[in-house]
Specification:
By secondary structure, the chain is mostly beta strands. 13% of the residues lie in helices and 37% in strands.
């Protein structure tokens, strides 16, 4: 299996970047294949995806 690793520097405080990337319910707006994400608790999200016609739901 191949692995791709990339990094990018963003000129904002860590707290601002963290706050933006933990707004999971907005991910379907820019992530193809993600239909819905529900923030169920502080540490649990429920995802619904549909990629190449295959639907999946999972908790993360």
């Amino acid at each position: 299996m191949s692995q791709v690793e990339e990094s990018i520097e963003v000129g904002v405080p860590v707290s601002a970047a963290y706050n933006q990337w933990t707004q999971f319910e907005s991910f379907p707006q820019f992530m193809e294949g993600v239909e819905r994400i529900e923030q169920r608790t502080q540490t649990l999200t429920h995802w619904k995806t549909k990629i190449a016609g295959v639907e999946r739901e999972f908790d993360a």
